[in-house]
Amino acid sequence: MIFQKKYAMLIPVKKDIKVKFSNYFIPTLKEEPSGVDYLSQKLMLKSGMMKQVSSGLFVYLPTFMRVAEKVCKVIHEKMESVNAVPVKFPILVAKEDLVATNRWDAYGDEMFRLKDRNKKEYAISPTNEEYACFMAKNFIKSAKNMPFCVYQIQQKHRDEIRPRGGVMRAREFIMKDAYSFHPSTQSLDEYYIKMENAYKEIFNTFGLDFVEVLADSGAMGGKECHEFMSVCDKGEAEIAVCECGFCANMELAPNGVCPECGKPIAKVLQGNEMGHIFKLKTRYSDPLNLTFINADGKPEILQMGCYGIGVERVICSIIEQNNDARGIAFPEIVAPFVVNIITANMKDEAQVHLSEEIYHELTALGVEVIWDDRADRLGSKLADSELIGIPYNILVGKNATEGKAEFFARCGEKTLLSKEEIIAKYKK
């Protein structure tokens, strides 16, 4: 589970922690991984972000955890901006609760099921509408208690028949799921637009090329929903795009004709789902009898919305859109480290001394730095930095005796700067 610091974060990345390659765990691979479906999967394995342990199951390694925390930080901030507050629901859901909303059967074999020692049946929750309703039932009395929205970021599970795409479609994944409660359809419509805009801000913050498309609600139910799809060369879904502005999954644009204007679909894009928002309306509140007392003093079924984001899917999308032949080219906002100090020769006292000074001073400024203090060849160190996707490098080499080092963006032109000039860049 991943939480921002003020939400009792379980995997903190403190700004003042000093990180060196020699005492950190980044197991990069020289060889090309075999049997991969997506470029992001190959690069995540090769750069040491994760390790596959079974079909659809992965160990997330330190650089993945740093990237994931940064992605979650942006999500937390945008959820705050629409007055959503963090909670945590149980992962296990009792069978009778899912039967009440017809999801025990609707999810079929994709949902993991188990029994406790008393033979009581449970599912590992696909999402948490039922428990969100039970929570809300405890204190919603009237329209004055609404609207409000709660969300969590935690693990979800699904029994994929054929896991593929690495963590794009795995058996275990991290998801942000939010649930809003409303006294009227107008209130739901207004909040839906706020959340819709928050999602656009999230994906724009990461610099992603994406489209919002009309989608099918599937087993989730509801009356209206939209997906946010990252555009890529190879994707799970085809996106129909019309000149009139209509975008939808191809399944909603049969025969290549736009259902909005009746004209032929202008183009078809490849995409991967990152987020999905739903107007559930009374899909769950009705069978669970979630009511409030209306202005006439009578009980009324309230309206609901739900809003999901797949954290791994966002990370994969960022990698799919930010890479080159050398590896990942992370945007600074999600990079595992912002600066890599590379010491060309660890046997050279002047190089080691200057590297250490820059390392300590940048760390003291709150810059996320890693120092490549390994005794490896310089070419290997540079290749690893490019593969991992660190945005900026400081190469401390033969000019160290003059107190100077080469500063350069990933794969960019090198500029020889003094230590003071390098530090001044980050003091700004």
Structure description:
By secondary structure, the protein is of the alpha+beta class. Helices cover 27% and strands 29% of the residues. The strands form 6 sheets. Strands 4, 8, 9, 10, 11, 12, 13, 14 and 17 form a 9-stranded mixed β-sheet that branches. The protein has a 6-stranded mixed β-sheet with strand order 1-21-20-22-23-24, sandwiched between helices. Helix 2 (62-81) runs antiparallel to helix 6.
Q: Which characteristics define this entry?
A:
single chain; 428 residues; alpha+beta; BirA Bifunctional Protein, domain 2; 2 domains; six-stranded mixed sheet; 10 helices; elongated; disordered N terminus
CATH architecture of the largest domain: 2-Layer Sandwich
Mean pLDDT: 92
Which shape, going by the Cα principal axes?
Answer: elongated
Count the E strands: 24
- SS element count, helices: 10
- As a percent range, the share of strand residues is 25-35%
CATH superfamily of the largest domain: Bira Bifunctional Protein, Domain 2
Radius of gyration: 25 Å
What is the CATH third-level topology name of the largest domain? BirA Bifunctional Protein, domain 2
Distance between the termini: 34 Å
- In the predicted model, the low-confidence regions spanning at least 5 consecutive residues are 1-13
- The CATH class of the largest domain turns out to be Alpha Beta
Structural class: alpha+beta
Q: Sheet bearing the most strands, described? A: 9 strands, mixed
